[in-house]
TrEMBL record:
SUPFAM superfamilies membership: Periplasmic binding protein-like II
Protein name: Methionine ABC transporter substrate-binding protein
The UniProt record lists the keyword Transcription regulation: no
A Pfam family it matches: Lipoprotein_9
Compartment(s): Membrane
Sequence similarity: Belongs to the NlpA lipoprotein family.
Membrane topology recorded in Swiss-Prot or TrEMBL: Lipid-anchor
């Protein structure tokens, strides 16, 4: 989500959605994009409305005759519920792994219709510019369900950790072959990973915590490969209800997100860490199907 991640149990707070989206919903709760004499109005949910990219995105949509009714959420548990309850037409805030957990946990069939970008997850080690000499160190990793597995796979890609069963999508510390690994892991609350870093412990830090901790994202000593199969679950996506997957206006929004001006704003927002991903809907659905099967 640019997602500083969320567990499936966070879905329990879902009914707060009504209050959050009331200003952006039609009174009758219809879910299809609205057409009028001036063009289409699309209700889109996000957790990042304050970012520059969203301002540029709205401007580009307006040039195409599409009015964006942007609904901002303060948490990650409600945008999908708002979509499922017909209070939104589309949302853009989550990656495929989170969507899979939501669909499996809720019984919904929300559908990815386009991709936006992926933010690599990175390893930081104070006063070091590479992983040379890291053998034997303990690495702090986020302990939440969504980030922990990805963090371990970052260490797998860095050839620092070996799994008992190679290729796991969401490994846990128990899945690590400690004898064959070069480092050990220390699960901590994601918000505490920067503290560990500042104290000299190598740490995998979520992108959303870097700014708050005053850590330059370009100081990473290793990050996962956004083009690898292991990174596919973390592609951020535009999501609709299944029956709206062929909406032409929403398809146009996906295209507009990849406009050069929008992408330049995304780059500024992320300080150069975001990597644009433009995968077709059928490929995204195939990845989602695989993730949902693993979560069932």
């Amino acid at each position: 989500m640019k997602l500083g991640r969320i567990t499936t149990t966070a879905i329990a707070g879902l009914f707060a959605a009504t209050a959050l989206v009331a200003c952006g919903s039609d009174s009758d709760g219809t879910s299809t994009t609205t057409q009028d004499g001036d063009g289409a109005t699309i209700r889109i949910g996000t957790t990042d409305a304050a970012k520059e990219a969203w301002t540029v995105f709205e401007e580009k949509a307006a040039e195409e005759g599409i009015t964006l009714d942007v609904v901002n959420f303060s948490d990650y548990s409600t945008p999908n519920d708002a979509l499922a309850q017909d209070q939104l037409d589309v949302n853009l805030f989550q990656h495929l792994k989170f969507l899979a957990a939501y669909n499996v946990g809720s019984g919904e069939d929300l559908t990815p219709v386009g991709s936006s970008e992926i933010v690599p997850l990175a390893l930081f080690w104070k006063d070091h510019d590479s992983i040379d000499g890291i053998e034997g160190e303990q690495v702090a990793i986020p302990n939440d369900e969504s980030n922990q597995g990805r963090a371990i796979n970052v260490l797998v890609q860095a050839d620092l950790v070996t799994l008992k069963t190679p290729g796991m999508i969401t490994p846990t510390p128990a899945d690590i072959d400690e004898e064959a690994s070069k480092v050990s892991v220390l699960p901590v609350d994601a918000a505490q990973a920067p503290t560990a870093y500042h104290e000299g412990t190598p740490a995998i830090i979520n992108n959303s915590f870097l700014d708050r901790a005053g850590i330059d994202p370009n100081l990473a000593v290793f990050e996962d490969d956004p083009n690898s199969e292991e990174a596919e679950p973390y592609i951020n996506v535009f999501v609709t209800k299944a029956e709206d997957a062929d909406d032409e206006n929403i398809a146009r929004l996906v295209e507009l997100w990849h406009d050069a001006d929008v992408q330049a704003a995304v780059d500024r927002d992320s300080k150069g860490t975001s990597v644009a991903v433009n995968r077709p809907a059928d490929e995204l659905q195939a990845i989602l199907d695989r993730l949902e099967a693993a979560d069932e």
